[in-house]
Amino acid sequence: MTGTPGTLVLAGTPIGDVADAPPRLSAELAAADVVAAEDTRRLRRLTQALGVQTTGRVVSYFEGNESARTPELVEALEGGARVLLVTDAGMPSVSDPGYRLVAAAVEKDIKVTAVPGPSAVLTALALSGLPVDRFCFEGFLPRKQGERLGRLREVADERRTLVYFEAPHRLDDTLAAMAEVFGGERRAAVCRELTKTYEEVKRGALKDLAEWAAEGVRGEITVVVEGAPESGPAELDADELVRRVRVREEAGERRKEAIAAVAAEAGLPKREVFDAVVAAKNAERQAPAQGKGLS
């Protein structure tokens, strides 16, 4: 090692098909002084598939040890090491370990570069059939229903296309929550097992996708959702006003606050939203079998 700081290299790895590995990845794996891998076993399989021999020290770097391992890697970088960071699939730090190390390296004025590679976010976005000129990546949603609804409510009026990661066993609940917050007719695409043998892209309205997912879905999942349509206050009917109040209440807001917030969003008097909520409540009391109501 020298007195000159080393370089941190973030390397994209295949999200499915190993043939998608960027050409530079093999060279960086062979040349790195330290290879920090999210899963060292997966790294071993990758190097075997690429026919590459790592000569540097291999260490694990995953969510459970990220905080503790970062100072050690920064010390190696300060000593002149070339540290290569790889995750299980895709680009490090994009919903994967890496952000802490990048931030620490930047703070120490250590050079950070990247080996561009496959990305589930961009691949799903391109395959979705939805607008790609402007988009937001929202990562994973919270597991708890109330927190999930609250996070979705924050972007309910977002015009840009939205991209999410989700676990297969939570997909049906997530799509149902999206249908509730965004509206069941909002278009979306569920991208499963991208670049792998059983790749599938299911497109449709959120309510239909939620019904499909209820039957069970396997594999790595990326969900792409159409952005909110342009709409003015006059386009929000009473049912929509009530739906928006309900979403806010289920996310933990008091009804008075929810009504005020929805009225502000719609550019309407609070009394008009209040009247819509009361009318819906009265209608549901008269016909309790017609669906879940405000209580």
- Kindly report how far apart the N and C termini lie: 68 Å
Helicity, in percent? 40-55%
Query: What is the overall silhouette?
Result: elongated
Oligomeric category: single chain
Rg, nearest Å: 24 Å
Topology:
Layout: E1 7-11, H1 23-31, E2 34-37, H2 40-50, E3 57-60, H3 66-78, E4 82-86, H4 99-107, E5 111-115, H5 120-128, E6 135-140, H6 145-154, E7 161-166, H7 171-182, E8 187-192, E9 200-205, H8 206-213, E10 221-225, H9 238-250, H10 255-266, H11 270-286
Parallel strand pairs: 1-4, 1-5, 2-3, 2-4, 6-7
Antiparallel strand pairs: 7-10, 8-9, 8-10
Helix pairs in contact: 3-4, 6-7, 7-8, 9-10, 9-11, 10-11
Task: Describe, in plain words, how this protein is organized in 3D.
This protein has 11 helices and 10 strands. It has helices at residues 23-31, 40-50, 66-78, 99-107, 120-128, 145-154, 171-182, 206-213, 238-250, 255-266, 270-286, and strands at 7-11, 34-37, 57-60, 82-86, 111-115, 135-140, 161-166, 187-192, 200-205, 221-225. The strands form 2 sheets. It has a 5-stranded parallel sheet with strand order 3-2-4-1-5, sandwiched between helices. It has a 5-stranded mixed sheet with strand order 6-7-10-8-9, sandwiched between helices. Strand 8 and strand 9 form a beta hairpin. Helix 6 packs across helix 7. The mean pLDDT is 92.
